[in-house]
Each structure stands twice: as structure tokens, then as C-alpha cells.
Sequence to fold (434 residues):
Amino acid sequence: MVEPNRGRGVRQGGYRSVLSMVVVAWLLRLVVAGFLYRELLDPARDHWHFGWEVGQLARSIALQHEFGSPLHGWTGPTAMLPPVYAYLLATVFRFFGLFTSQSAFIMLAINGLFSALTCIPIFFSTQRVLGVDAAKYAGWAWAFYPYAIYFSVGRVWDYALTTLMLAFCFWAAQGLPGRGGWISWLGFGVLWGAAALVNPGVLAAFPFLLALAATKLAKGAGARLAYSLVAVLGVVLVMVPWMVRHYVRMGIVCPIRDNFWMEFWAGNTGDLSDLVPDWAHPSTSPVEMEKFRSEGEVNYIAHKRELALQFLRQRPGLFLALTARRIAYYWTGYWSFQPAYLGREPTALPNLLFCTALTIVMLRGVYRWWRRDREAVIPYIVMIAAFPLVYYITHPLMDYRQAIEPYVVVLMIAGWYSFHGKREALSRRDAVEA
Fold:
């Protein structure tokens, strides 16, 4: 039995460690943001590099037009992006000006804060399965993780907020089986629904983690199904208002985003010169942008759906080959050694070495952890397996994997972490919590 004072001291020590992680991580990101925010200020293409589609959309909101025009010029209402981050950026624009240096730094600072706060769920979710020491390693590793730093304060996009929300969802999933009340399960669904309004891609992992939590619930099959349905209801309740907005404003039935087929087609043209050839997407092609403007978003995407399905029917082998190549890129950073590609992507080779090394260490962690505690590692495997699925068949840009980087970090920690004495450490932790 652990003495009460000792248990309180352990908890306080853990809280102090987490606070230190968050503070150091944010300060580091603020320093990096101070060097990078000027890169957002290029006025070319109507400040396109300041957030790309979300920057244009936030401008429309800030000018009190509507939730629309995510590309070039005024093109009407849109369902191409989820709402939360766009409204956050629009709020910054209203207070600090459209595409100004102040807005750039403030937005990157906010992103950096989201990334730093991710240390909290990383620490406590890792503590649940590997103990305090491993949790500290994971939290500090995240504080200094190069991908987490660069993609949070080098670009205006939802990466950091998505990562934070998904990390809290994952942490909640770990503790869900111990909560038998329907309110907890409803709240779990609401949390996932809120995360989906930041990035609907997070829902790829939801059914798997929900199923894992339900199987651990100390109740009968009927109760497990009922609680699972309550969690699904929580997700739906959050998404319904946005679905109604899409139907009223655009006449479409769409949960959050409508641009899947546009992205699918752009990534599956057969052109291997890049992951997304410039000529294939309206954000980079004047020809496609003119089609988008003349046809309207709904009709343009419907047309791309027809082309994409035609491609699948006519060239299924090429689609499978492209998918395999995208999977390889996602975990190694390799796409091409062609001089033209390397000229456009000067960091491709360093990223190839770094990304591949991370994947090797991560896989070692999966192997070692699987041999010692399959039940604990399965949720982490679910995260790295489920989240990328949609990107494997569209275009897996390196920044699109940021939401699962915390699980990559923890699995890397497991690659060299000593499992000896882990059960005893976790038993002491359980006694402290009791």
C-alpha cells in the first residue's frame, strides 16, 4: 500500500514535469516562429502562402461575407474545409488585420501553444501503459520533436490543433472502459465530434478505439452495444448543425467536407512527377481554377468524381501501384529521385533519411511492445494504421501525418524503453490513483 503523502507527492511531481514540458515546448516554438513568420507575408497570389485555402476562407469570414471562397477570388459558399480552425484564423484577422505580420506571428504562436499543450495528453496516456518514467521521456521527446516544431509554427493550418484534439480523444479512450455511465460515453462521442470539426480525418480511428473500449467494459453485450451507440450519437449531435448548414446553403448532404473526389482525382492522374501535379488542382492550376469558378464547387467536384471513378475502372493496377507508392512515401519520405522533383523539394533527401530512421525505430518499438503487452500496444497500432487510410488513396503529404506523430513518438520510446519492472511500476501508480 502506498502512503497517502507519497502518492500526493508522485502526482505533484508528475504535474510539475508536465508543466515544465509545456512551458519549454512553447518557448522553443515561439523562438522558431520568430524566424519563420515572415515567410507567410509574401503577397503573391493574394497572400496564398498565408494559410492557403484556410487563409482565403478566413478572409471571407473576417470580411463578413460568408463561409466560402477557399481558393482564388470570390466563389461562393464552400464545404471544402471544416469550420473550427477557419473561424479561429478569422478571429485573429479581425483583431490583428488581414495577412499582417502581427496576424502571422499570433497565429503561429497559437499553433505553437496547441503543440506544446499536446505534451499533457501524451504524458498521461503514456503513463497509463508504460509508467511515469516512459511518460516523461515521451513528453520531453514531443517538446523537442522536429516535425512537431516545424509543422506547428512554420505553417498556418490545423495540424497542431488536430494533433492536440486527437491526443485528448486517445487519452479519453484509454479511460473509457472504467466509466460505466452513459453520460461519459456521450461525452466521449461529443469530444470526437468536436475533433472532427477541426479535421474529419480523425474519425478514421474512432470506430476502432470505440470497439476496443467497449470490449473492455465490464458489462454484457447489450450494454456494450448501447454505450457504443450513445458515443456515436454524441459524434452525430456535434456534426448535425454543420450538415444542416451544407444542405441549406449548398443543397448537398455532406457531414463536414465535400472535396474528397477532387483530392482523389488530383492524386490519381497517373502523373508521377509529384504527389499532386500543379496542373491537376485548382489551387495551383489556372485552368482548373477557371473550371471551378465557372462550374461552381458542387458541380466541379461531381465532375471530378466521375473522372475518378472512370480512372478506377480503367486503370485499377495503376491505382494500386500509386497507393503502394504513397504508403512508402508516408513512412519513408521517398517519392522520386528525379532532378526536377528534387529541385522543387530541396529538403526531400534529408527528410528521407530522418523519416525512414523514425519509422525503423517505431517498428522496433511495436515489435518489442507487442511481445510484452499486446493489449497496451494495440490502440497505438490502431492510430498509426487507421488515420492515414484516406491519405494513402489521395495524397500523403508529410504534413498530413502530424496528427499521429505523438503515437510514433511513444512507439519510438518503446523501442528502447526497459520493460523490466513495468508491471510493478503500474501497480504502484494504480495504488496511488486509488
Summary: The radius of gyration is 22 Å. Residues 380 and 428 are 23 Å apart (CA to CA).
